Amino acid sequence: MADVAAEKTGTAWRSRGGDRRSTRTLRLRTSAVLLTATVLAVLLVPPLVQLDQQAVDLAAKLEAPSLAHPFGTDDVGRDLLLRCVYGLRVSLLVGVAAALTATVVGTAVGAVAGALGGWVDRGVMRAVDTISSVPHLLLGIFIVAMFRPGVWPVVASVALTHWLSTARIVRAEVLSLRARPHIDAAVSGGASRWRVTVRHLLPGVLPQAALAAVLMVPHAMWHESALSFLGLGLPTHTASLGNLIQEARGSLLAGQWWPTLFPGLFIIVPTLAVAGLAGAWRERINPRRRSELML
């Protein structure tokens, strides 16, 4: 009886693991399709749709979605499909640039703190904790307010408020790597602290830093959209997703749903796609987490 019960339990676990693997596969494929569709829209829609995204046509303002305008038009008759695509371009530029900058800064700070240890580590992490105590959006507004509206002030604002989590992740990974036997062997062999950091510690933290950068892209896009929605990000004439949603508030109250829905989807869909792919990546670089999820 015990053997039969054990066999049934093992079969149930294998079935559960198979279901979860199939769910992860479906999630991965769906995320890849969504991300591919996003990239193709950014690359192909502008040359295929022979319209000027800034062209005003008051006779066609707030038209519902149709064959001529698949996403409808805004309150001055501009094609929303083109406006959303150009807005996504700007948001992706801000997201990628801010994520790369924040990752470089966070990796450098975290690696220095973890590698040097002692009072350097304590001082750096206290500074990180102090900056983290200020809400990101409030600090971002303060940084953007010092410059004229534009892409690069928003990139600087997002990057300077989002390197903190990367610094914590990299520091924790460096501290974990420092306890490995091969690091002790390198130090015992006479390797300098700089050589150990560059040759052994940094290569070990790069996968985690790269994952943090990927996950930061949609977060940076949301941050840029929030700043633009508040009127503190990109100039109002720039077709950013935050600006499009801000311009559509009056239309939504009047019953026109499409000027708000489609820019919102252009923010949500890339976020879900990147989150799904990053989750699969996290499970690949962390086998312990993957084995736990399969139980």
Report the span from N to C terminus.
Answer: 23 Å
| Total beta strands | 0
Which outline best applies?
A: elongated
Strand content: under 5%
The average pLDDT value, as a whole number, equals: 79
Organism: Streptomyces tendae
Family: Belongs to the binding-protein-dependent transport system permease family.
Pfam family, one: BPD_transp_1
Main location: membrane
Please characterize this protein's 3D structure:
- The protein is built from eleven helices and no strands.
- Residues 289-295 have low confidence and may be disordered.
- With 295 residues, the protein is mainly alpha-helical.
- Its main location: membrane.
